[in-house]
Amino acid sequence: MTQYNSLQSYKRLLMFIKPYKKRLVIAVICMAFSGASNVVVPWLIKDVIDKVLANKDIYTLNLIVIGILILFLLRGFFYFGQRYLMSYVGQKIVNDIREKLYRHLQVLSLSYFDRRKTGNIMSNLTNDVTALQTAIAGNLISFVQEAVILIGSLVSMLFLYWRLTLLTLVIVPLVIFTINFFGSRLRLAGHEVQGKLADITTLLEESISGIRIIRSFNREDYEIKRFLVQNDNNFWALMQTTKLTSLLTPFIQFFAAIAVTAIIWYGGISVINGDMTAGALIAFLIYAINLANPVRRISEIYGEIQKSLAAADRVFDTLDTESDVKEKNDAVTLPFVKGNITFHEVSFSYDEEHPALTHFNLAIKPGQVVALVGPSGAGKSTVANLLPRFYDVNSGSLTIDGTDVRDVTFASLRQQIGLVPQETLLFNATIRENILYGRLDASEEEIVAAAEAANAHEFILELPGGYDAVVGDRGSALSGGQRQRIAIARAILKNPRILILDEATSALDTESEKIVQAALDRLMEGRTAVVIAHRLSTVRNADHIVVIDHGHIVEEGTHKELLAQHGLYANLYAVQFKDKSEGRNT
Ligand SMILES: Nc1ncnc2c1ncn2[C@@H]1O[C@H](COP(=O)(O)OP(=O)(O)OP(=O)(O)O)[C@@H](O)[C@H]1O
Predict the structure, then answer these.
(1) Which part of the chain is the ABC transporter domain (predicted)?
(2) Count of domains forming the chain
(3) Is the reported ipTM for this assembly greater than 0.85?
(4) Is the pLDDT score of 331 beyond 70?
(5) Nearest CA owner, ligand 1 atom 7
(6) 120, 242: one domain
(7) Are residues 285 and 345 in the same domain?
(8) For residue 493, which phi and psi values (nearest 5 degrees)?
(9) Segments in 321-427 forming alpha helices (H)
(10) 552-557 and 403-404 beta bridge pairing
């Protein structure tokens, strides 16, 4: 079992408090006052019994009664201040942590996302951060407040009768041992709960985004069963923490009862022997009962905090994950490039076991359209992934205009590379906002010009709302071809020197493909382009065709040259041509 260090995690959480120190200090002052008012009341009661009642002193009685009223009025004021300020600090810290986490996710390399399920990452930002909120915002307030009452009561008891206080304190080691015993178990149980919650979020994310597949395979019942298992797992993980917290409280209460019994017994004897006044014993008992409450609450809060620290561990794990692809400290800005791309002896694998590219050499001249073809899994997309540094080469080098891509800033590199993938992600926003994603400061004229060049202007005008039409979740309100044309308009607006078209037309039917291809041809004019395509008919006109198999270049040349070689390309072409003539356009 993993061991977690509570103190370290809490210290790390407390580091986030720094910017809010002032507010926290005021909040703690308010707490001290509000807690102190609790401690003063038994003293007043002692005086009522021992002085006022014994001496029949109405004047002091009136003073004490007015004093109690004023005390409670002040207490209300401080209570408000403390709750408001502590909540403010707590929520702010949680907000800051969430922001830090989100910023960190934006810089983590793609390999991080490859290794994790989307739902799991989402759960980190939602469920885990929410659990943290409970730890900091809710429990920290109560913890400090109860601690003030606890210490105040103890000090008063020492003043009242120190011997009796020491007797009461005998239970302290018992309480500490029990809290520790349950605490470590609660922390592990908390990890289990957060893990199961992440499983549910992952399953939800998968089943919502895959709803079409589920319906088409009639797998609703299967999915429900899968969900029920996860839901049940979560339930039992939660019950485990409930069992622990529910056991902890009776233990602590029993220890408190032992203390109160000891006070009544020893205190009773002391009053009978004349070592203590009756008022002092009553005040002492009120303190002891007062004390039991914070002890119980603190043990409860401790349990809660342990559970929340489990969530903190998960958040910190993510924050501590370093990106595999990092910008150098002395990275330079890649100047406006011509588009000379050179892969020199590049080897790369996603998982260190199965090489995706080995000793890959390729030189692309500015303005050239180079097509990458080959069987599925050959390594074509990998070539495209290395260019914008989604991943870094394991060995060899990749240069643009002679500069290694690892020596330049991400922004200046990616600014000059445009990517049109097979399935474009559109955001649930207007067409205009989606096109603007290519260059945020583009003018209306530039947006329209880009849409026109992408063969998208006409269909956009036909949509209700035109450029203000909302495209739906992931662009669901548009057809595949329309989505690709928006993606092309985006790329045109970005105006990159280098283009990567990764199967940009393979999800489209022939009719739609023609329109998109025309837009792509326009987009490629004057730029260096790397085109990945399964349909060889779409790459016939490329300046240079590179055939990749098992991470190596096996053939290269023009369409004609490759056909004449009667190799893999000629084979692939023959198979596709045969399929087409049989009416099975692949
Ligand atoms: N994110 C990833 N994590 C692990 N392995 C991967 C990842 N992406 C690709 N691979 C593996 O790397 C190899 C090359 O994949 P790549 O996607 O480059 O092939 P491809 O030629 O583009 O295939 P396709 O035409 O089917 O898209 C394959 O064996 C694939 O399984």
Answers:
(1) 341-575
(2) 2
(3) yes
(4) yes
(5) 350
(6) yes
(7) no
(8) -65, -35
(9) 380-386, 410-414
(10) unpaired
Q: Are 337 and 408 within 8 A, CB to CB?
A: no
Q: Which atom of ligand 1 is nearest to the CA of 534?
A: 25
Report pLDDT digits (tens) over 421-475.
887 888 888 999 999 998 899 999 999 999 988 888 988 999 888 999 888 776 7
Share of the chain above pLDDT 70, in %: 96
Instruction: Provide the CB-side half-sphere exposure for 137 (13 A, CA).
Output: 17
As for ligand 1, residues whose beta carbon falls within 6 Å of it are 114, 350-351, 354, 356, 374, 376-382
**Is the pLDDT at 246 greater than 50, yes or no?**
yes
The residue whose CB lies within 8 Å of the most ligand 1 atoms, and thus the one to mutate among 109, 376, 381, is: 381
| Same domain for 454 and 306 | no
Clarify whether residues 150 and 182 are in a common domain.
Answer: yes
Domain ranges, residue 405: 341-581
In angstroms, rounded to a whole number, what is the distance separating the alpha carbons of residues 489 and 467?
Answer: 13
To test the pocket of ligand 1, the residue of 350, 386, 419 to mutate (highest count of ligand atoms within 8 Å of its CB) is: 350
CATH of the domain at 204: 1.20.1560.10
* Contact status, residue 145 vs residue 82, Cβ threshold 8 Å: yes
Q: Are residues 293 and 421 in the same domain?
A: no
Q: Report which residue type is found at 345.
A: E
CA of 235 to the centre of ligand 1 (A): 38
* C-alpha 26 – ligand 1 centre gap (Å): 57
Residue 331 maps to a domain: no
Output the CA 350–ligand 1 centroid distance in Å.
Answer: 9
To test the pocket of ligand 1, the residue of 116, 380, 531 to mutate (highest count of ligand atoms within 8 Å of its CB) is: 380
Whether residue 205 contacts residue 119, with contact meaning beta carbons closer than 8 Å, is answered with yes
> For residue 506, is pLDDT > 80?
no
Ligand 1 centroid distance, CA of 377 (Å): 5
350/284 same-domain check? no
Predicted pLDDT at 71: 85
Whether 124 has a pLDDT exceeding 90, the answer reads: no
Taking the CA atoms of the chain, what radius of gyration do you get in angstroms? Answer: 35
Distance CA 153, CA 293 (A): 11
Amino acid at 576: Q
Helices (H), 437-479: 444-453, 457-462
Q: Which residue's CA is minimally distant from atom 24 of ligand 1?
A: 376
- Residue 554: its H or E element: strand 552-557
SS (H, E, C) 155-187: HHHHHHCHHHHHHHHHHHHHHHHHHHHHHHHHH
Per-residue tokens: 306:
């342990």
Q: What is the pLDDT of residue 584?
A: 45
Rounded to the nearest integer, the mean pLDDT of the chain is 85
Residue 290 burial (CB count, 10 A)? 21
Q: Are residues 407 and 491 in the same domain?
A: yes
Closest ligand 1 atom to residue 357 Cα is: 14
**CA atoms of 575 and 222, how far apart (whole Å):** 38
In a domain, 335, yes or no: no
Residue 529 has a pLDDT of 92
The domain spanning residue 346 has which CATH number?
Answer: 3.40.50.300
Distance CA 335, CA 412 (A): 8
Q: Which amino acid residue places its CA nearest to atom 28 of ligand 1?
A: 377
Token pair 């280098």 is at which residue? 498
| Dist. CA 509–CA 496, nearest whole Å | 27
Does residue 403 sit in the same domain as residue 304? no
